[in-house]
Design a protein that fits this description.
Rossmann fold, 23% strand, 9 helices, 17 strands, 342 residues, alpha/beta, Dihydrodipicolinate Reductase, domain 2, 8-stranded mixed β-sheet
Amino acid sequence: MEAYRRSDAVEVTALCDADPKRGGEAAATCGAAAYTDHRDMLAAEPLDIVCILTPPASRLRIVADVAAAGHAILVEKPMATTRADAEEMRRLCDAAGVPLSYGASYRHLPALKQARALIAEGAIGDVILLREDFIGGRGPASRAALPPWHYPEGGIGGTGMGLVDHGVHLIDAFAWLADSPVSWASGRGNRSGNALETEYAILGLANGATGHLLYEDGTWPTQLPAEGQFSWGASWDADGYHPGGTWQTHPGSIHVHGTHGALRIFHYAHALYLTDAEGTRQIALDGDPAPDHFRVQIDAFAAELRSGTLPGTGADAGITALAVLEAIYASAGRNVAIESQT
């Protein structure tokens, strides 16, 4: 909401939330009409874009209603809880002639955008490894899985900083940064309703690079205070939400290693470092830190609608991310035991 209020391209005119108190308070911040049923909002309001930010399990039925009403759609990540549901969303929107944009918001963070430009220029040579992890928390009791109305029991799930709800960003971002799709994947992810475990994924990109993800927010961090970073942007990590403008002991970061150098991308802290044979130096960034990337994202979609062009990040990106997640989950049942040699 803060980011959308900054936009000169769109105006928030209506908002729907099942919780009338929360919805009313949010709507009041921008003078919007408040609803508790999206169908009532669709019937009453002359809308151009509907942004679907609800839990993933609810999105297919809402997309169906919005597409039938003829409005453009921006759907948050992950697009759905299954690849099949995401493909049905695409089919519904195509049949209705409705543009569908996928909220791959990391593509609009200044640090990632600049890192991608440097990689394309050859600043670190050929990309050979991309990695990210979130390890920390305050012990097992400090974490909680997202509820079944978010991720239905038995399917993909876990915590807000786990492989699904957070890692889906990186699955998309790794391929985008390296300009190469993921061609194979393996690992282990938490299932909704099951005991929480450490999650990981190994991704093989078509260009030969490897992606590595590792998530565990039910332990304690090992970073020392001096290893942190001043965070200019609002951010989320294993300890929860940080409003920005403060020191973070262990801010989130993405590492990209190449044949001639490496990048450390503090995506929310709004900082980028390049290391090569000449040493380590900080790279200047254009644009504002999070949450402004949400403004950039909605502005880009509005511009696409005005020009009649297809969304730059369409349904295919969301479907691909879910396909990779499903491959990771499928691989977990094929772990090979190592027999004792004694």
